[in-house]
Every structure is written in structure tokens, then in C-alpha cells.
Amino acid sequence: MIYILGGAFDPPHAGHSAIVRSVLHYKNPEKIIIIPSGQRDDKSYTVSDEQRLAMLDIFVWEIADIRIIIDDFFLTKWEGNMITRDVDLYARGKYGEDICHIFGTDTIESMSEWDSEQYAAKTVYKLFVPRSVGHDHEVWNDPEKQKKIPNDDWIASYLVRTEKLWILNFEFLTEANIPDISSTEIRRIIPEYATIHARFDEDPRFIIPGLSRKISRYILENKLYLTKSDKKPKILVHVCCGPDVTMPIIQLRDDYDIICFWYDPNIQPKSEYDKRYEAFVRICEIENIPYIKGAYDVGNFFTRIRWVEHTPERGEKCTYCYDMRMMVSAKLAKRLKIPLYTSSLNTSPKKDLDKLFKMGHKYGEKYGVEFLDIPFRKHGGFEKSVEYTREHDIYRQNYCGCIYSIREGGESEMKKRIVG
Ligand code: SF4
């Protein structure tokens, strides 16, 4: 006998795997043909056909039995909507009359309504495997309820119901023990796992519940099942300037909900401050990122660097300057109940990363928010930010910010400022 397992496989999960393994074990089939469904009136798919097929390839490879075959006819050749009758007629034409379709018992209730002639309910030969009706979260999360599926009462009640529903040509695979997993529930939880790539990479055993390790990896690497409405953790990104914040935005936006925070009273003169702020706002508009503008409290800056004004860049005055900006950013993250913060200062090759990271963590601990110590400048980050500003014609400054750094940014710039 050849068994047909149709379905969306969006994504293929441990329930599908248990069904295939049970049929292999108890029915010793000649083949199991897996037929992913194409266009259906009652279904829309979350990922592309190619991605569903790629996951099915992994699924079949993992079961490692040459009797399992994927038939992609309804994805690649069929036009228009499909129903079970189409699958049956196609399978009979291709694989012969000795075929049996596998369905979950949860389909019994509605089967007689699948087509007007009741072809699926009466003509198709069916093997029912035990599945609970509804896949509600309560059953999913309650091991006690899971244990009760299947039991004799369920089977008996199905038999009574099938008689009432005029379902013909079927048998039950009562020996099978299929975990009650639903694709809908798996899709719902995937975004929670998509934001913790690092943990996944560090621990190769780590998987999304209900999915194999390889399918989990495929989903996370290809960022499947994420939508704009997915809850990403919020992060406050302190902005030192527009060009430098391009890298945090690009590197973090898939995994985090970014809010930029412009706080730079270290920039002088005011005309330069305004020019840099405008460049930053343009980037936020291009990338559609919300932002907050901090105060231009230059007095705060000059008070902090008093007596060390003339120390070189990366020296003592810069330590106070980073410290001021990290502290204010961590404080704001706490006030806004944003659990994470970081700074675009990590993009600049002129900044002392060790110093920045230590401060970031110090204020993170003090204010109860987590500091993300990502060196955005690495892996060509700084060069990419230069490319970005060139491409979008965005102003890029040639000195760090304070009046003392103008000299380090170029003699001519200093003269221009003094004259201006
Ligand atoms: S050189 Fe840059 S980092 Fe250092 S104090 Fe001036 S503005 Fe701040």
C-alpha cells in the first residue's frame, strides 16, 4: 500500500514526524508520498513554496527512509485551487489504485463538507491518526491533557460520530502516539526564539519546541515566521552622530525595536550641532526609526571635563564625555522602561571600546537595564557607514565634537570655526 500524507507543512514538525514514523512502523508501507498543498481557498501560507519545500527536504532527510518521497506537483504544476479530490485523482493516476490518505482525527468533523459530492468523506480511502480537536493552547501546555489523547473513549466517540457523518472507507491507526502539536502554535512562538540567535549559535542542541534542530536553524537563519507586529525587545540606542548610528540601526533592526536617543552636548559650536542633528534625523526618516532628542546642556559637558580639557582624544576628557552620555542614556532607558541600551559610539574606530563597554555595563547595572556591548565597527562596520552616507549624500563631520577636538580634526576646520 502507498500512503499519501498531504498538508501545508508550514512548518513540518514533530507531529508530522511521529505520523510518518508510526505509519512506517505499523503499516510497513511500500512508500509514503508527502504532497505539500498548493493554493487552497481555506488556507494561506506564511512562507514561500520554496521555503516549505526546503524544510520538507530537511524533514525527509532526518527520517532517513528511502520509502519517503516528496511530490511537489501541487506547488509547481497545479494551477488554481486544490481540494482532496484533486490530490486523490492525481495520486491514483501516478501511483496506482492501492493508495491510502493519512488524516488526523481532528478532520473528521468537517470532512463531509470538504466537497459537494462528499468525495473525501466517502470515496477516498483513509487512515486516521489520533489528533485532538482544536489544538487549543490549553491542551498544548498541559501534559495531563496530552496524556489523554488518544484513549478508547475518544476512538469510540469518533466511531459514533463517523457513522452520523457518513464517513466511509477508513481505518484508525490506534497504536500511534502522536504529540498534539499544531503548526499554528509553533508559528506563534517562533518570534520569541528569533531574537536569541546568539544563544542558538552557542548551544547547538537548542531548538524551537516542536521542531527538529535543523528545521529550527533553517527558520532562524532565514528569519521565517516573523512579521512586523512581532514583539521584539525594545532597545534605546544612544546616538553620537548620524553616520555612526547607521550600523546599530542596520545590525539591530531585525531583532530589536529601536528607539534612537540623540544626546550630545559635547558638540560645538551650536551650528555644527544642528547640522549633525539634521543629518541624524534624515537617517531616521530613511530607515523609519523613531527618535528622542536630548537636551543641549553644554554646561554639563564643560563642568565634567574641567581641568582635563587639553588631554588628547581617547584620553581623560573623552572618558568623562563617554561617561556623561552613557549615564544619561541608561537613566532614560530606565525611565522609559526600555530593557536594553547601547551606543553608536561603538561604530567609531577612534573610540576606546574597552572603556565604553565598561561604562555601559556600569550604568546598566546601576539603572537596571542591560547594556549591549556590540562592536558595531567590526566586520567592516565603519566602512559600511561611510558607504551609506556617501550613497545617501549625508553630512559626515571631520572632527569628533568638542571645541578641543577641532584641532585634531584638521587645522583648516579649526580656522573655519574660529572665523565662523
Ligand atoms: S574629543 Fe570627542 S569624545 Fe573626546 S571629549 Fe571631545 S567630543 Fe567628547
How would you state the average pLDDT, rounded? 86
CATH topology assignment of the largest domain: Rossmann fold
Determine the number of helices (DSSP H or I, runs of at least 4 residues). Answer: 20
Proportion in helices = 40-55%
Q: Which percent band covers the strand fraction?
A: 5-15%
Architecture of the largest domain, according to CATH? 3-Layer(aba) Sandwich
Span from first to last CA? 89 Å
Task: Point out poorly predicted stretches.
Answer: 134-140, 410-420
Radius of gyration: 30 Å
Number of domains: 2
Summing up helix and strand content along with how strands pair, one would put the structural category as alpha/beta
CATH superfamily of the largest domain: HUPs
Q: Report the principal-axis shape.
A: elongated
